[in-house]
Amino acid sequence: MTISVGDKVPDVTLVKATENGPEQVQSGDYFAGRKVALFSVPGAFTPTCSAKHLPGFVEKADELKAKGIDEIACTAVNDAFVLSAWKNANSADDITMLADGNGAFAEALGLTMDGSGFGMGTRGQRFSMIVDDGVVADLNVEQPGDFSVSSADHLLSKL
After folding, report:
1. Which of 80, 52, 85 is closest to 60 using CA atoms?
2. Closest by alpha carbon to 26, among 41, 16, 36, 38?
3. 13-158 architecture in CATH?
4. To which H or E segment does residue 113 belong?
5. Helix or strand holding residue 37 (H, E)
6. End-to-end C-alpha distance for the chain, whole angstroms
7. What pTM, to 2 d.p., does this model score?
8. 96, β-bridge pairs
9. Which residues are catalytic?
10. Which of 113, 108, 158, 115 has its CA nearest to residue 137?
């Protein structure tokens, strides 16, 4: 079942990419007590993710924070080392990278996709959401191959 607005974010282990290396975090703890703009990409270093999705959130980080967002986070079914390298390659200092290496978070959200036709296996769908104190306040899931409702601009228009 796909998560919906008003639902609590499932509590699974994610791996936060930090300057000191990977750090395990529970999603329930991570999202508690603050407002987070979360976006999901099918994979770091993939074309749309690298050319549009991440750069849009890097560019709009200050505007999102000015509208009440405490933290901006990106999740992908990649390991923390890949997400850390992607963050560094894109000067994404204002974005927290949350690795979902085994896809447990995407699966618990009900937002997986089959990327096996591209040699990627099961991945998380492209989406954005506002999580307010652990509860989904806004959810924007892309149709396969699209990039519009998960963008930073679209999320800004919802705040």
Report:
1. 52
2. 16
3. 3-Layer(aba) Sandwich (3.40)
4. strand 112-114
5. strand 35-40
6. 26
7. 0.92
8. 73
9. 49
10. 158
List the structure tokens of 29.
């703890």
For the chain, what percent of residues have pLDDT higher than 70?
A: 94
Domain boundaries, the chain: 13-158
DSSP classification of residue 151: S
Cα 108 to Cα 148: distance, rounded to the nearest angstrom: 24
Q: Contact, 49 vs 58, CB < 8 A?
A: no
Q: What is the DSSP string of 130-146?
A: EEETTEEEEEEEPPTT-
Tokens linked to 69: 């967002």
pLDDT tens digits, 98-109? 999 999 999 999
Calpha distance 34→19 (Å, rounded): 22
For 112, phi and psi rounded to 5 degrees? -95, 165
How many whole angstroms from its chain centre is CA 25?
Answer: 15
Compute the distance between CA of residue 19 and CA of residue 67 in angstroms, rounded to an integer.
27
- Torsion, Cα of 63, 142, 6, 16 (10° steps): -60
d(CA 22, CA 15): 6
Give per-residue pLDDT as tens, 117-149: 776 667 788 899 999 999 999 999 988 888 889
